Backbone:
């Protein structure tokens, strides 16, 4: 279904137009980022019109701009940059008219592709070394999988992926697990096209990094830009993992809307419920537990020793569902979670 773009902060029309100019290339059934994520979210997005506000797209837009600047850095000749500018202009025009005139848009895309393929003829030194913003496509279980990596250096056999992200995303273990999975699938796609990947590097640009935070948090990144080495997994192992992922998404499609697999805690960025055992004289808990029964046991054992001892329920939260999932309002799993939390509050 369609994304309904909103502008709740009444931002300038130029910014709105920039956000509408989606450079994401759809080239199959499953993108790599969809494949490593929740089948439930992908299917709910496919079945529902959902809103996305321009203000929530600004970081993504700035990330796209950063990617474009870094891409151009490998092209040190003015004529080469002009060559790519022509290709970009034609592709943008094609995307703008896809709805109104699909046939004309398809013709323009063919022209852009033809011009781009001439790069190797006019600038062989560039084509001989770098592949950038290249869209991979391969079939798994009869379904096309696609993904676009940032840069592959043929000379060093190194795959680079740029991340314009928050410090929290860098420090959150699940984020880096996804980065490893994503880049290794790109390496697998390159392998299928006959290219070997010996090294993978994530270059993370931390948009909200503050030097002062290094003083109080030993785990805080030391610099604003980091190059992170990623293990290159056996292509046989990656291939089997991709087959399992595609099978999982296909099974979810076949299950029907009422039987979609639930998002895992990691996919929901979930924080667990807690039960705090407290006394009236202190705001700080005497003990906190993730298990209600353990909290009740401690309360029973210590209520004669600690005057006024009581248990306070601290509901966990699914951070992604609360703040970042565009289809949460269509999700029955989310509704059940909210009902559960409300029930627990009343019981306490």
Residues:
């Amino acid at each position: 279904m369609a994304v309904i773009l909103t502008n709740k902060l009444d931002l300038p029309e130029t910014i709105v137009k920039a956000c509408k100019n989606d450079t994401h290339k759809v080239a199959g059934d499953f993108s790599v980022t969809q494949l490593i994520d929740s089948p439930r979210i992908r299917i709910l997005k496919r079945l529902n019109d959902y809103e996305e506000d321009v203000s929530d797209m600004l970081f993504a837009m700035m990330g796209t701009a950063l990617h474009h600047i870094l891409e151009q850095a490998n092209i040190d000749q003015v004529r080469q940059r002009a060559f790519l500018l022509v290709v970009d202009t034609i592709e943008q025009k094609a995307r703008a008219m896809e709805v109104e005139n699909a046939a004309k848009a398809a013709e323009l895309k063919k022209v852009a592709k033809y011009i781009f393929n001439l790069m190797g003829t006019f600038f062989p030194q560039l084509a001989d070394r770098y592949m950038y913003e290249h869209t991979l496509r391969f079939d798994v279980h009869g379904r096309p999988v696609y993904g676009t990596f940032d840069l592959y250096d043929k000379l060093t056999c190194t795959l680079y992926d740029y991340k314009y992200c928050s410090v929290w995303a860098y420090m959150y273990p699940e984020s880096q697990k996804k980065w490893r999975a994503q880049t290794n699938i790109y390496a697998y796609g390159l392998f299928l096209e006959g290219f070997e990947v010996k090294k993978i590097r994530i270059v993370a640009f931390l948009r909200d990094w503050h030097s002062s935070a290094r003083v109080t948090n030993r785990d805080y990144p030391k610099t604003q830009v980091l190059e992170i080495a990623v293990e290159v997994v056996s292509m046989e192992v990656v291939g089997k993992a991709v087959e399992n992922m595609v099978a999982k998404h296909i099974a979810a499609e076949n299950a029907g809307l009422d039987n979609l697999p639930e998002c895992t805690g990691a996919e929901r960025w979930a924080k667990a419920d807690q039960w705090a055992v407290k006394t009236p004289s202190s705001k700080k808990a005497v003990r906190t537990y993730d298990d209600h029964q353990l909290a009740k046991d401690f309360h029973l054992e210590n209520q004669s020793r600690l005057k006024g001892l009581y248990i306070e329920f601290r509901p966990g939260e699914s951070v992604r569902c609360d703040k970042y999932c565009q289809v949460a309002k269509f999700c029955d799993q989310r509704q059940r979670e909210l009902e559960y939390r409300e029930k627990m509050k009343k019981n306490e």
In short: The CA atoms of residues 118 and 124 lie 10 Å apart. The radius of gyration is 25 Å. The longest strand covers residues 130-140. The chain has two domains: 3-77+123-259, 270-347.
